[in-house]
Every structure is written in C-alpha cells, then in structure tokens.
Specification:
The chain is of the alpha/beta class. The chain has 10 helices and 8 strands. It has one domain: 3-Layer(aba) Sandwich (Rossmann fold), CATH 3.40.50. Strands 1-2-4-3-5-6-7-8 form an 8-stranded mixed β-sheet, sandwiched between helices. β3, α2 and β4 form a beta-alpha-beta unit. The longest helix has 20 residues.
C-alpha cells in the first residue's frame, strides 16, 4: 500500500471538483489589502455569530459552495469565505508558504470586515494550522470552532515531520520540473516550508476557553497504517485536552468530509452556532 504524504493530500485536494449546487446565497466580494497584496473575501450577509470557512491546502473558497445555501438557511449567520494567496481571486505571493503570513492575511480580512467578535472558525485540513495561529493571536475574537479533519499540533511530532519531509523530496523535485501552473506553485510553496512550519505548529496550543467540535474522517488522509493511526490519535488527544471539545467521526468518509458527508459538517456548525447563541442569551 502506497503511503499518502501530506503533500500528496494537497495534490489530491487540488483535483477535487466543485460539488456545489448551481445556485448559492448572494455574496459580496471585497478585496482586502494585507502586507502589500490583495486577498479576496466573500461575504454572505447574516447575523451573529459570524461563520468563517477556511478550505484546505490547494483549494479556494469555492470548496464550500455545496453547503453555503443550507448553512445560511439553517443558521441565518453571516458567512465569510476567502481565497488564500495564490488561490481564486487573491494575489499570488512568491516564496515559501508562511503560516504567520497566512494567519495575518485572515486576521487583516476579518478586522477590515468588522468580524472580530463572536466568530466561529471552520477549518478544513491544513487550515487547522491557520485557525490555531489566529486563535493564539486573537482568542477574544472567537466563540467557537469546527475542525473538519483538520491539522492539529499533536500530529506533527519531530519524528513524523522528519519522515514526511524525507518522503516529500521526490514529489518536490517533480513539482519543480513540472509546468509552473498556479496550483503547482502553491503546492511547492507549502512543501518548501513544511518542516519549519510543522515544527512551529507542533508547539502551538488552542485556547482552552474556545470550544471546538472535531469532525474526523472515517479513513484519515493516509494510506500508511502508521500515519493513519497517528492522525486518529492526534485528533482524539486534541479533543480530550479540554472538556469543551467534542470528537465526531464521519464514518465512511475520505479526507474530503465536506463533500463525502456534508450533513455531518453542517450539523456540527449549526450545533456550534446554537451553543454560542445559547451562551450569549444567558
């Protein structure tokens, strides 16, 4: 059985077709300035709490199109999606991918949109890294989070980072020799910063006062039994680290939980919205 590296996960996600419906809620796009480049933020009007959807590596805001309408109808919340640098309508930034820079882009966007209170972050896959970095900087902005088979610090042990970095070397070489398409450039940017970013992420901690629902895939993103087991253990440990965290398993789902089991993701988000509104009412 071939091992699926983290870079392989990103490559897989890039190939996922949009499974969204033909119609979606009316949105307004705003180009936000952040450190000399523009980031596209797409806002569906609604009420508090604000739901911020952050897609996985190699994906833009269209990844969420399949659940936007239902999520808007059931919650009535304002919903924000956005395109990270080099994706969708956002500017491309040359060089290795920066977790610090990605978190700053999101923070700048939310601040300029006035979304710095009662925010529920929904992070898919590697967006868990960005969510955690933002939560460390601005825990007061957040009322809750939903991690959709997302990266958590517990997974990125020194041994795992060393192994994945070594196994990604061949794929990095292939990307460098491949046509310089936008997706390839973004995959290469992430791969080149993987070791440094992962080591820093491993030392991060999610604020204990911000509740999280962890939606884990049924299979994990890996072919390797060793990596799949570590992935599941990391999510389990993350959920156990605070009493306001809950683990939900999307049985039968691949890493692409949003498309495989959208009802589970929608329910998890709606439940978090209800929880935040209930706490606010009291």
């Amino acid at each position: 059985m071939t091992r699926l590296t983290l870079l392989g996960v990103l490559t897989l996600l890039v190939s996922i077709a949009d499974a969204g419906p033909a119609s979606a809620p009316a949105t307004v796009t705003r180009m936000i300035q952040s450190d000399g480049h523009r980031i596209a933020f797409h806002v569906t009007p609604g009420h508090s709490p604000v739901i911020v959807l952050d897609a996985g590596g190699g994906l833009d805001s269209s990844y969420w199109n399949g659940i936007l309408a239902e999520l808007s109808r059931r919650t009535g919340s304002e919903i924000i999606t956005y395109d990270r640098t080099g994706m969708g309508a956002s500017d491309e930034v040359k060089g290795p991918w920066s977790l610090t820079g990605a978190a700053q882009d999101l923070a700048d966007g939310l601040e300029q949109l006035g979304a710095t209170h009662d925010v529920i972050l929904v992070a898919d896959s590697m967006a868990g890294e960005i969510a955690t970095a933002l939560a460390q900087r601005h825990p007061e902005w957040l009322s809750g989070a939903v991690f959709v088979d997302a990266s958590v610090p517990q997974f990125y042990t020194p041994q795992e980072v060393k192994r994945v970095t070594a196994e990604n070397s061949a794929m990095i070489a292939a990307l460098r020799s491949a046509p310089p398409t936008q997706p390839n450039r973004q995959l290469l940017a992430y791969a080149e910063s993987f070791a440094e970013t992962s080591r820093a992420f491993h030392e991060m901690h999610w604020p204990t006062n911000v509740p999280v629902t962890v939606v884990a895939s049924g299979t994990s993103p890996f072919d390797s039994p060793q990596d799949a087991s570590l992935w599941r253990q990391a999510h389990s440990q993350f959920a156990k680290d605070s009493p306001n965290r809950r683990l939900v398993t999307a049985d039968g789902s691949s890493h692409d939980v949003v498309h495989d089991r959208p009802a589970i993701v929608i329910t998890a988000i709606c439940d978090m919205v209800s929880r935040v509104r209930g706490l606010r009412a009291h």
